[in-house]
Amino acid sequence: MTADELIQPDASSDAQEQAPAPRQRGLMLLLLLANASMLAVYMGVGSVLLPTHIATLDPANKVAVLGVVGGVSAVFATAFNPIAGALSDRTGRRNPWILGGALASLAGLALLGSVQTVLMVGIAWCLVQATMNVYQAAVTAIVPDRVPAARRGTASALVGLALPVGGTAGVMIASQTAARPTIGYLVLGALAAGAALLLTTFCRDVPRREAAPSPSVPKRERLGAFLSALSHHDFRWAFIGRALMVLGYFSVIGYQLYILDDHIALPEGLTPPEAMAILTPVSMAAMALSTVVGGLLSDRWDRRKIFVGVSAALAGAAMAIPAISPTWTGMLVFSALNGLGFGCFMAVDTAVVTLVLPRAEDAARDMGVLNVANAGPQIVAPFVASAIVTALGGYTPLFIIGGALSLLGALSVVLIRGVR
User: I want to staple 409 with a disulfide (CB 3.0 to 4.6 A). Which of 49, 86, 245, 282 is the partner?
Assistant: First the structure.
């Protein structure tokens, strides 16, 4: 059985045949909007508002505090994503989880904007991470649910535009509201809730075929089944490669505000938030270009691994630039090259992942497990980065280690067998 057959079950085919065409025509645009709003929250809050908030509350210990908050919230992010995916599979519906997760995240962001102690910031951010990962798990499962395997590269490229679009919008909003973070939190939360409302209104759920009742299974066996995808060779290496690449990227990006403040020689009169508002569009424009080109060419040539491996290597190599030249020009070049590499990687790697899912009927659950490699490192990264900066005495080692992680991610792709 081919990888394409593995991820196109009869239930999915039936669902697509039963789906009312008018309600599905805008699926890709709505998915782009839903993913972009989600990443606007992750990037806007994680890169600007949360570091600014923490620096205001405890400037002397900001690096360590951000690391602890990120590390603790990682538990919530990594746990809620696969759990929500499995529950979404069981109910056979995505929309209630999408809308519920987005509205709960809006409430969590409102709480985050109102608190004035480091402890409460940590608690509120954990709540936001948990609810956003409920939202993310259900949104991510829609591509393997409804898009044919032959079009996954193109679909992944379109959805992959969410990072440059959402990341730019999130950082721009956050940079403009850094002095008034409460407003920034609410605006970003409202974007996610609005996108979820549009997706669930105009793209109704198509109930999946009900499976035959299964016998009672002991808890230990259920846990084994929950993580069973990792026993499959290709899925496991896709998981490892994604985790390494994302960890390397976000270890640096998550601390970019502090890097600009403490490491880079900025032009006179340019503040770190203003610099972020310049660097992010440069990075995201490069990311958008490589996302579209990489996704389309990988479909046309029916080649995935070469795009994923080379783009990961480029992103890793680019991290040497600020380590060698800690200047504003160096950061601009780094942002452009790193954006090119990371954008192509995420677009084509998403197609690779959908082609190595072990069982189509468990798509959301297994994508939720895979999303641990996506969401988990994004939140663990501040903890890792703070340990590196504190133990090794600066941001130069952070760039070097981040680049090495990305290069290891590129090597992991070589070990995937079932995708060209």
Answer: 245
pLDDT of residue 12: 36
**Contact call for residues 291 and 372 (beta carbons, < 8 A):** no
| CB of 192 closer than 8 Å to CB of 372 | no
Note whether 194 and 103 are within 8 A (CB): no
Q: From CA 154, how far away is CA 37, in angstroms rounded? A: 20
Residues of the chain below pLDDT 50: 1-23, 210-214
Which pLDDT tens digit goes with each residue over 227-269? 666 667 777 888 888 889 989 998 898 888 999 988 998 998 8
Smallest CA-to-CA distance from 350 within 167, 143, 136, 77 is with: 143
Instruction: Kindly report the CATH number that applies to the domain delimited by 3-10+23-204+229-414.
Output: 1.20.1250.20
Rounded Cα distance between 414 and 420, Å, is 10
pTM: 0.73
Vertex 312 angle, CA 308 and 315, to 5°: 145
Q: How many whole angstroms separate alpha carbon 225 and alpha carbon 358?
A: 12
Cβ neighbours for 287, distance < 8 A, ≥ 6 positions apart: 163, 164, 167, 339, 340, 342, 343
Angle (CA) 193-197-200 rounded to 5° is 135
Q: 265 φ, ψ to 5°?
A: -85, 95
Can you read off the two tokens belonging to residue 132? 């956003």
CA-to-CA separations, 106 to 73, 160, 190, 191, in angstroms, rounded: 17, 23, 6, 9
